[in-house]
Amino acid sequence: MLVKRLPMAKQCPQCVKCTILRCSSHEKNKKVPPSCPTEKYLDLVRETTEKYKIPENHAVIQGWLGLMKKVLDPQKQNEKYSWTRIHEIIEYAKIRGMKRLGIATCYALMPESKLLSDILENNGFDVVSVSCLCGEVNPQDLGMPGDIFCNPILQAEILNHEKTELNLMVGLCVGHDILFLRHCKAETTPLIVKDRALGHNPVAALYQSQGFFRDRFAMKMSMDP
Q1: 10 Å Cβ neighbour count for 115?
Q2: Which pTM value belongs to this model?
Q3: Which of 9, 169, 185, 209 is the most exposed place for a label (fewest CB within 10 A)?
Q4: Could you give the CA distance from residue 61 to residue 55 in angstroms, rounded to a whole number?
């Protein structure tokens, strides 16, 4: 059966399927498809470039730049492989002059969050940590089934009131992480993304999709029996 394809000009951006990759090339005159976001949304390119000049955005970019200068030091080319995510977060916070860090943790990852808190405190930070089960909600009050309901909005509001400068998410469930991000005021970065099957290493599923997990992802996904 033939698949009807939309005209290229109407296609949405599909950078992951691009075979030209002009954005990573020194040949900036390469011809790209009309769906290329750089071509299709040229006005947004200009608008977003200006937004990096807004003070709060500029501060983040400067922090990132300072971090990358250390991680990608040309005089220490192999050192970039020694930087863990925790190292990068610590260095970023120090470059930004941040002192008070928040941890929004899933209750199931409390031991990992305790280790994280100790590491951050040993590096001179004041740490505030809040479990997802703090202020747990009765699901019946929201017209939902179950015995307990986590409160990620409360996690965010507590860290807002504690005036944390950088928050770290540790294993919040899909959906709860969205609500936490929606309501917290401080800069926030994920440290651990929950993946019950793979030891909280979700990228392993992508690698295994080309091997042992091939059959699992080859069909429409359903975990129902």
Answers
A1: 12
A2: 0.87
A3: 9
A4: 10
Q: In terms of domains, do 137 and 188 share one?
A: yes
| Residue labelled with tokens 């990573």 | 24
What confidence category does residue 9 fall into, taking pLDDT thresholds of 50, 70 and 90?
very low
Nearest CA among 184, 60, 155, 166 for reference residue 116: 166
Instruction: Decide if pLDDT at 95 tops 60.
Output: yes
Q: 216: helix, coil or strand? A: helix
d(CA 32, CA 19): 9
Q: Are 86 and 119 in contact (CB under 8 A)?
A: yes
Dig out the tokens for 84 from the structure. 């863990």
Residue 169 in contact with residue 189, Cβ under 8 Å?
A: yes
Distances (CA, A) of 198 to 46, 79, 191, 194, 215: 41, 28, 15, 9, 17
Give the domain extent around 54: 32-83
Amino acid at 211: G
Residue 213 belongs to a domain: no
120: CATH: 3.40.50.11840
Q: Answer whether residue 1 shows pLDDT above 50.
A: no
